[in-house]
Amino acid sequence: MTNSILLYLIVGMAASAVAASGSIVINEMELNPPQGGADWVELFNSGNQSVDISDWTASITDGGWIGKMSVPKGTIIPANGFYVADGNSLWNHNNGGYATLYSDSGEKVDETPYRVDNLNNDFTWGRRPDGYDTNTNGDWGFGYATKGRSNVVG
Predict the structure, then answer these.
(1) Domain limits for position 13
(2) Distances (CA, A) of 135 to 46, 73, 86, 116
(3) Which CA distances in Å does 75 have to 66, 81, 84?
(4) Would 46 be classed as within a structural domain?
(5) For residue 154, is it within any domain?
(6) What is the domain-level CATH number for residue 88?
(7) Quick check: is 103 in a domain?
(8) 132 falls in which pLDDT band (50, 70, 90)?
């Protein structure tokens, strides 16, 4: 195999990996769960192929507080599928924040706007509809939690 063909194959595989990771977005986030619950971040694969998100990291940041959630090895989100990264029920912050998703190489894949949830119930911030990503505030709605399932539009 010539060096140019090998280089072409490597560049093509890298482009495929970037395109695949580009289909993963933060889809929903729980910032103020009911008593005894934990914060969480739901990811959604809006692409047509499965994506391996092994060793990715999701975090919620609220002021100087950061809660990190690691994705275990072997985690694959199928096309139009979901994955939920659970936080810790002992986390204590000011009922707001924004979520950030990082790839296994530390590259920022997605980040939400800052949101506040003072209700201490099962309401969450989610994209409406799933995966809707125009990088504007209009992508997000506040409603009943649909952890690991499609967000309800309405």
Answers:
(1) 3-144
(2) 15, 29, 24, 18
(3) 23, 12, 11
(4) yes
(5) no
(6) 2.60.40.1260
(7) yes
(8) very high
- Does the bond joining 129 to the residue before it have cis omega, within 30 degrees of 0? yes
Residue with tokens 């595989």: 13
* pLDDT tens per residue, range 111-121: 999 999 999 89
Q: How many domains does the chain divide into?
A: 1
DSSP character for 139?
G
Which CA distances in Å does 109 have to 11, 19, 26, 123? 20, 11, 9, 25
The residue whose two tokens read 């950030």 is 100
Both structure tokens of 118: 């003072």
Is residue 50 a part of any domain in this protein? Answer: yes
pLDDT in tens, 27-57: 999 999 999 899 999 999 999 999 999 999 9
Contact assessment for residue 59 and residue 52, using Cβ atoms and an 8 Å cutoff = no
Euclidean distance between CA atoms 51 and 67, whole angstroms: 24
